Every structure is written in C-alpha cells, then in structure tokens.
UniProtKB/TrEMBL annotation:
Keywords: Leucine-rich repeat, Repeat, Signal. The keyword Repeat applies. It comes from Trachymyrmex septentrionalis. It comes from the Eukaryota. Signal peptide: none annotated. This is Slit like protein 3 protein. The keyword Signal applies. Coiled coil: none annotated.
Length: 256
C-alpha cells in the first residue's frame, strides 16, 4: 500500500527546521501551499516534482534558493507576481536552476523572469507553450541552457544578445522556417537541437552568426537539402555531415 502526502499542517510563526537548506517533497500529492510557511529562510535546494501543485509563491522564503524542481505538477502559467492558480517567480533573486517540465503551461508573462537575473539553467520542456514574448528572457544575462522541447512553438524564441546562452533545445515543436535573423542574437550558441519540427526551409545566412556552434541537430524535419552557400560558408566548422531523405544532422566530431 502506498501513501502520498497531500497536506502539511502549519502553525503560525513556527518554523520546524530554521536552518534547513535542502528539502525533498517530490512524488507526493501536495495540492495546497500552506507548507510554504514552514520553509526555512535559508533553503538552498527545493524539490517538489511529481505533486499536484497549481499555484506557488515562495516570495521571501525563496530569497536564498539556488535550485527549484517543479517538474510534473499542474501549473498552467508563469508570472512575476503571484495570483491565484499561477507560478510566481517573485522573490527568487538567487535562483540559478529552474525546471518546470511536464506541466500544463500555456502562458508565460513577458515579465515573468524580471527578478531572476541569476538563472543559468531553465527547463520549460513538455508543456503547451505556443508563444513567447520577445522580452521574456531579455534580462537573463547569465542564462546558458534553455530547454523548450516538446511544446507548440511555431518560431524560435527571441533571445537577447546580452545572454550567455550556449545550449538551446527546441525539439518537437511546430517550427517551419529558419530565417536569416533567427539566431542573430545568439552568437555564443554551441549546441542547437531542432529535431522533429516541420522545418522545410533554412535561409542561406541562417547560421552566419553562429561561429562557435559545435552541434546542430535538424533530424526528422521536412528538409530535402540545404543551399550550397549554407553548407560551405556557415557550416564549414562542422566536420560531420549526414543526409538522408528525412533528415540532416550535423555534429562536430571532436570527442574521443
């Protein structure tokens, strides 16, 4: 017989573990957010994946939080300020790692991450995101990895050229075209994965700005070929080129 925690009883002004830094409440069935009152103000790592949360506002409890795992919950939107039925990012000023994969997210407000300047890793995969505002990631200057796989995006999201983004996952979306300006603000990209989209056209200058690119995956799209200019000029640093009727995959063969 399995038992799952659904609620945590709170008592006003009582914190049971005031020095607690790591807390794992994953794989329960937590619905409410009263437990937030119990959290230590020194919390560094919080794992809540595999619960039934629809809303969460950590606010001051998250001031020192470094990593937050919210995979496999029931959030449907992300905002900066907290409202009912939302994931609020306010107060998480020291957050470096955030994973919200496998939820029901459809909407991410343009200012959702305005106070999360320290983010290095952001996982938003396996949701229902079909649109991202051009300023959504504008202030995430230290962001290195962004995972948007398995969503409903029709375009590659705009990323500020002030970010440090080196790895971008947009696999399994509805992207159809790669234009000359798609990656113009991502000059530090080293790994770009776009497999299983609907891409049937890649502009000759699409990868012109990606001088550091080492790995490019365009497999399982609708490409029949790439222009000669794209092959010779922009992709000359990619040593391995494989083509078949269904896919084109480029990967630098520099590993042992």
């Amino acid at each position: 017989m399995e038992f799952h925690l659904t609620t945590l009883t709170t008592s006003q002004n009582w914190i049971p573990f005031p020095k607690l830094k790591i807390l794992d409440l994953s794989e329960n069935d937590i619905l409410g957010t009263n437990f937030v009152q119990l959290l230590s103000n020194n919390l560094y790592f919080l794992d809540l994946h595999g619960n039934s949360l629809r809303k969460l506002n950590l606010n001051q409890k998250g001031n020192k939080l470094f990593a937050l795992n919210l995979d496999k919950n029931k959030f449907d939107n992300i905002r900066h300020y907290g409202y009912s039925k939302t994931l609020s990012m306010i107060g998480l000023k020291n957050l470096h790692y955030l994973s919200v994969s496998g939820n029901n997210i459809q909407i991410i407000e343009s200012d959702a991450f305005q106070g999360n300047n320290e983010l290095l890793f952001l996982n938003l995969s396996s949701n229902h995101i079909h649109y991202l505002h051009s300023t959504t990631f504008a202030n995430l200057q230290y962001l290195e990895t962004l995972d948007l796989s398995i969503n409903q995006l029709e375009d590659v999201p705009e990323i500020s050229d002030k970010t440090e983004i080196s790895t971008l996952y947009v696999n399994n979306n509805n992207i159809k075209k790669i234009t000359s300006h798609t990656f113009v603000h991502m000059p530090k990209l080293m790994k770009l994965l776009m497999r299983e989209n609907q891409i049937d056209e890649v502009d000759v200058n699409a990868f012109a700005h990606l001088t550091l690119l080492e790995e490019l995956d365009l497999s399982r799209n609708m490409l029949s070929s790439l222009s000669e200019g794209t092959r010779q000029a922009e992709l000359q640093r990619l040593r391995k080129i494989d083509e078949d009727e269904e896919s084109i995959h480029y990967k630098q063969n520099h590993r042992n």
